[in-house]
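so im writing up the methods section and need the Lipoprotein record in one place, dumping it here so i stop losing it
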Amino acid sequence: MSVLSKLAMGLGGAGVVGTGCYFVVSNFSSPEKIKEKLSSRLAREGFDLLNFDSETSVSQNWKDILVEYKKQGEATSEKFPFSLAASGTDEEKKNVDFLKEACRILVDSEDESNDAYIKARRWCVVPKTVKEILGKLNKRNLKYENNESEDNDVWKSKIGKYDHSKLPLSGITWPGSGDDQKVSELKKGCKTLLEKTTKTYSKDFTTEYETAVSWCLH
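--- predicted struct ---
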């Protein structure tokens, strides 16, 4: 079976079955909500799709994604249902073309599962950092330098909500008392997080993005 056939079965097969079921069920129930393509959801949430057309040369973005993709274990749900070319002429270009076609099929689907969304966001979008994505969405991060006090009231409002066991900020020492010390630690944690260079293709991106949204935004 060809790579494209595997992709069509693995990524698009559910949509074919689902379409047939819909017309049967629709006679007995209210209309289903309009589904959204993954490409639309990604764009709405600040992510730009990569170019999926085959090209004579491989762009740096795709090279970086391919390197990270190869690091993943075979059992992970964030990989596509095919094996990359092990070696041979134009190995890099062939593998990138496989990823491009997989991404093209995936982002054109209406798969609403979290696994599909994370896979598309990790391998099919222009690599960006957490801070870059938040900026594109016009989300303002709180001022995190210690000499910047204009957001201190907002920082203090987060103190009572901070749970250092769920989505914790790394590299901070949470004091037992003292609002000023706690604000200082929150600022330090957010500064470290928002200045990291973790890209969308990294396995740590999802956790770091969610942590930033929880603690570092106005």
